[in-house]
Design brief:
heterodimer, A: mainly alpha, globular, B: four-stranded antiparallel β-sheet, 5 helices
Chain lengths: 470, 196
């Protein structure tokens, strides 16, 4: 309904809104509420499918199909197709589980912990990192289920009244893991969707296709940006962040306890929970960089994800990398200080035994190479940072390989020593989950806004207010 | 919500199906303007009013007179249910329902019950927070009279709106419009109501 009085239109209707100057390093100058909205939503709504996206999606989709093939074969034949044996009964399944769940941790760290610490640079990357968390947790959850041997009976791990009157063993870290990972997956999903609601409403209002309006409209729950709604929304968002912060620390601590509670040499160590959490954040930030750098280039997001963001992520990587290096040093120290010959032998075997090449590669990737991050010139060199993030991803995978394999393959009784090597099927499954992960990331950037637009507007508003006060 | 009969405009001037006026909606280009306008309307005695913005503005909920929310209590209640339920489940199953003697160790081994108690506390608190937000905000509400104003689409993008509902006791179409015009809006719209 149009206005009917002789009412004079506001000058803002004739000319475009004035751009907000911004002295900040987290968003390029010249952005307005409208240009932020336009830039981010156009990737989803109007930008035609380009060949890079198509190619990336096609390759990752094929790898996902390979994953489905590998899973089908596994279910038909059994876990004998893997390289696991006795004594190394954990193998790739647990290595990949820990690796993926660790990668997920950066998402929660960025969205929750950095929110509580009021780090405004998180705004450009949090949505993206949250999506990464969900996909990584999905990939992670696959492995223990398949490792069960009879995945259709996974529900035996849950407490439900059954005819045998049995309950799960509450004192077992493996049962804790079920609760930790399922809580983590659920809360991450809630947090991600909750953060998306205002942006889904924005897509609903900007979409020109009927299908887009209906689908985004249903998902947006009828969000209309009411001040009263925003009040509750914002409070809920901060509360969820406050809940997710201890959660993310508990999840990888419990994963660490899976190992530490066992009496296997090289696992039975109180250091494990904190050292696992630091390692998780380390690998997670590496993965965020691995994904952010190409996406920033593909979609021209230099205005939102500036060199300052990359620099900050590199600094977090350096910091957590140093904690991880301290963890390795303490493992060496404790194996000597414990006076236990089994612990001493474990360390000696890691450094000089049959898996020594992997061990030294791990030390090079996780401890030596990241020292380059001390230099600002290196941190601001985007291609070098990309390569570093790949190195850390490989290093963190090798870390779990070394922890799982070298500890299990030679324990107390030399008569039960053995060797472990992965089969082709192990690799297919692992590479397949990488394909699934990348495939989901490609779908995400195509159908959902990869940067939280309402938080970017809030950032702009905060900056223009701060300038007025100066 | 019943329409205030005195303020219902004559139906013959309206499109078919539209039975009344939901309220008057003013559009603003800048966040400070909507905050000032909301304050002014609230000071003028209007109580059934709401403002709309594409991002959370703390002053705005104060300006429309709704500075508080009970949400943290709902989170606390959810967390308490999770904590007591989680611990109670482990205690009851281990001590009463299926006591299992493992080398004479205590059945009520509380330190081992903490991780699951903690996880369930977080899970229930998080679900209660989101459910509480949805229930208090009456979401999902797929349709709302405001969506019938085409310009309102920008409320989720780059514009700011203030709506004074016709059910307000002070609402008077001409007087309310004069008040809104004095707050420097980009435009003012009448929001039709489909409710009978």
């Amino acid at each position: 309904m149009a206005a009917e009085s002789q009412f004079q239109p506001h000058p803002a209707q004739m000319q475009p809104a004035k751009p907000r100057r911004s002295g900040s390093r987290v968003i390029r100058p010249g952005m307005t509420y409208a240009s932020v909205t336009d830039k981010i939503s156009s990737i989803v709504l109007t930008r035609p499918v380009d060949w890079i996206w198509l190619l990336g999606f096609a390759v990752s989709f094929l790898l996902t199909m390979m994953l489905i093939g590998a899973i089908s074969y596994l279910l038909a034949v059994g876990v004998g197709v893997w390289g696991i044996d006795i004594p190394v009964a954990w193998g790739f399944a647990i290595i990949n589980f820990v690796w993926w769940i660790g990668i997920g941790h950066a998402g929660t760290l960025i969205s929750a912990i950095l929110l509580l610490l009021r780090q405004d640079w998180r705004t450009s990357i949090n949505r993206f990192a949250e999506a990464m968390t969900i996909f990584a947790v999905g990939c992670a959850a696959l492995f223990p289920l398949l490792h069960l041997g009879r995945p259709s009976r996974f529900y035996w791990l849950l407490p439900y009244p059954n005819t045998l009157g049995l309950w799960p063993q509450w004192r077992s870290p493996l049962v804790w893991d079920v609760f930790a990972v399922s809580t983590y997956g659920t809360v991450s999903l809630i947090f991600f969707y909750f953060g998306l609601v205002p942006d889904l409403a924005m897509l609903r209002d900007r979409s020109t296709s009927k299908l887009g309006q209906i689908v985004y409209g249903l998902l947006a729950l009828g969000w209309r940006g009411s001040a009263v709604h925003w009040k509750r929304y914002h409070r809920a968002y901060v509360l969820l962040a406050a809940l997710a912060t201890p959660l993310v620390i508990s999840v990888h601590s419990i994963v660490g306890l899976d190992f530490a509670v066992a009496i296997v040499p090289g696992w039975h160590n109180t250091l494990f929970p904190p050292y696992f959490v630091a390692g998780a954040i380390y690998s997670g930030f590496a993965m965020v960089l691995t994904l952010t750098i190409p996406l920033r280039w593909m979609y021209g997001l230099h205005g939102f994800i500036t060199e300052h963001h990359l620099d900050n992520m590199a600094k977090v990587m350096l910091g957590t990398g140093l904690i991880v290096a301290y963890g390795y040093a303490m493992e060496v120290f404790m194996s000597w200080y414990s006076g236990s010959e089994f612990e001493t032998y474990m360390m000696h075997n890691r450094a000089t035994g049959p898996y020594a090449p992997q061990f030294w590669l791990l030390v090079s990737c996780n401890v030596i190479a990241p020292q380059l991050l001390w230099f600002k010139r290196f941190r601001t060199n985007v291609p070098a940072l990309f390569i570093m993030s790949l190195i850390v991803n490989v290093g963190m995978w090798l870390e779990r390989y070394i922890i799982v394999v070298t500890s299990l393959h030679r324990d107390y009784l030399p008569s039960s020593w053995g060797m472990y090597s992965a089969t082709k099927h192990d690799w297919m499954l692992y590479v397949g989950t990488i394909g699934l992960f990348v495939c989901l990331v490609f779908l995400f950037i195509r159908f959902l806004p990869m940067i939280a637009t309402f938080e970017m507007r809030e950032l702009l508003h905060g900056h223009s207010q701060a300038e007025e006060e100066h | 919500m019943a329409e205030h009969p005195a303020h219902r405009p004559p139906t013959d001037t309206l499109l078919p199906g539209i039975v009344g006026l939901y309220g008057l909606l003013a559009e603003y280009a800048e966040p400070d303007e909507v905050v000032a306008a909301a304050r002014r309307a609230h000071d003028a005695g209007y109580r059934r009013l709401d403002a709309f913005a594409p991002f959370p503005i703390d002053e705005l909920s104060h300006a429309v007179g709704k500075p508080r929310t009970r949400l943290p209590l709902i989170t606390l209640a959810g967390g308490a249910v999770g904590a007591l339920g989680g611990y109670g489940m482990q205690y009851w199953t281990s001590v009463f329902d299926f006591p299992l003697n493992v080398g004479g160790r205590p059945l009520h081994s509380w330190p081992a019950f903490i991780p699951i108690t903690f996880e369930l506390t977080i899970l229930c608190a998080a679900i209660a927070t989101v459910a509480g937000m949805c229930i208090l905000n009456r979401l999902p509400t797929p349709h709302h009279p405001l969506f019938d104003v085409p310009a309102f689409a920008r409320a989720t993008q780059d514009r700011f709106f203030l709506c004074i509902e016709s059910t307000d006791e002070q609402f008077d179409k001409a007087g309310t419009r004069r008040l809104l015009e004095s707050t420097n809006p980009v435009d003012i719209y009448e929001v039709p109501s489909w409710r009978t």
